[in-house]
Design a protein that fits this description.
The complex is a heterodimer of chains A (153) and B (138). Chain A has 153 residues and is of the alpha+beta class. Chain A has one domain: Chemotaxis protein chec. In chain A, the strands form two sheets. In chain A, strands 1, 3, 4, 5, 6, 8 and 9 form a seven-stranded antiparallel β-sheet that branches. A two-stranded antiparallel ribbon of chain A has the order 2-7. In chain A, strand 8 and strand 9 form a beta hairpin. In chain A, helix 1 crosses helix 3. Chain A is globular. With 138 residues, chain B is an all-alpha fold. Chain B has a single domain, classed as Up-down Bundle (Four Helix Bundle (Hemerythrin (Met), subunit A)), CATH 1.20.120. Chain B has four helices and no strands. Classes of the chains: A alpha+beta (153), B mainly alpha (138).
Chain lengths: 153, 138
């Protein structure tokens, strides 16, 4: 997959984190990986359809996920319950929606499917012969990943 | 839940936003409080109704303010409010049909919280910027 698809997600993530959480993500690494693996406890999985097809996964460590929802709600969170996972789903949705708006400026017209939230460390998706991109972003409250496998139709 | 950075610089709207965030906070903290769901359900419903009523009051006042200052993007903003009102109404319909399950109420709470923060930080900030450019601070 092309690296140019990554930047809109990076820009959108920085923008949404700054607006909603007052956090400032920094790119800590970008690598090509054989499989889409979520190594962190809370993952938001979104499908992309249209000119680009594929999947985007946001993966957050547990403590970071709880802290993000605390920043927004002002309430201490103890576990990844329905409220925390729905809130993460909304964040993933907003970031992806904004990223697709940026991509549409490069003439890629895409839609996203509703977020699915996975709690726990899974080895979820693999695509034979396809390399995925794994972008790790560090913030003041922890590091999270955006994994992407997007192809032009 | 309310943060100073959410201020848009228009006193009427800022004070209503503060009130709205406080009501959302009450709703969310009741929802997230420890205890058996069925036992706290009455209180959850009460805080939810209280908050929903205020959303309508606030949207109406904010729209009237945009008309008053001739905000150029007011029609677009009204549409965003209308869309969110229908999101809320859809949930109310589901709650009435399927009952107030903890999972659905939490999903609703998360949508409401994230929508509100994003909307105030992005769309409402622009009203404030326009008001200031016109010298209409309050």
């Amino acid at each position: 997959m092309k690296a140019e698809y990554v930047n809109p997600f990076y820009i959108a993530a920085c923008d949404v984190f700054e607006l909603m959480l007052s956090l400032h993500p920094k790119r800590s690494s970008l690598k090509a990986v054989e499989e889409l693996i979520n190594t962190k406890e809370a993952s938001v999985v979104l499908g992309v359809t249209g000119d680009l097809k594929g999947i985007v996964i946001f993966s957050f460590p547990k403590e970071m996920a709880l802290e993000m929802v605390k920043i927004m709600s002002g309430i201490e969170m103890e576990e990844i319950d329905g409220f925390v996972s729905s809130a993460l789903g909304e964040i993933g949705n907003i970031i992806s929606g904004n990223a697709l708006t940026l991509l549409s400026k490069n003439n890629y017209k895409c839609d996203i499917t509703p977020p699915q939230i996975l709690v726990g460390k899974y080895k979820t998706f693999s695509a034979p012969n396809e390399k995925s991109l794994l972008l790790s972003l560090s913030t003041e409250i922890g590091e999270f990943d955006i994994s992407m496998l997007l192809k032009e139709k | 839940m309310w943060k100073e950075k959410y201020k848009i610089g228009v006193e009427l709207i800022d004070s209503q936003h503060k009130e709205l965030f406080n009501r959302v906070y009450d709703f969310l903290s009741t929802m997230q409080s420890k205890g058996d769901w069925d036992e706290k359900l009455e209180k959850v419903k009460e805080t939810m109704n209280f908050m929903q009523e205020y959303v309508v009051v606030h949207f109406n006042d904010e729209e009237a303010y945009q008309d008053e200052i001739g905000y150029p993007e007011r029609e677009e903003h009204k549409k965003v409010h209308a869309d969110f009102r229908s999101t809320i109404n859809n949930y109310v319909e589901i709650f009435n049909k399927q009952g107030f399950s903890e999972e659905l109420v939490q999903q609703f709470g998360a949508k409401l919280m994230t929508w509100l923060i994003m909307h105030v930080c992005k769309a409402d900030k622009k009203i404030g910027e326009y008001a200031q450019s016109k010298g209409e601070n309050n």
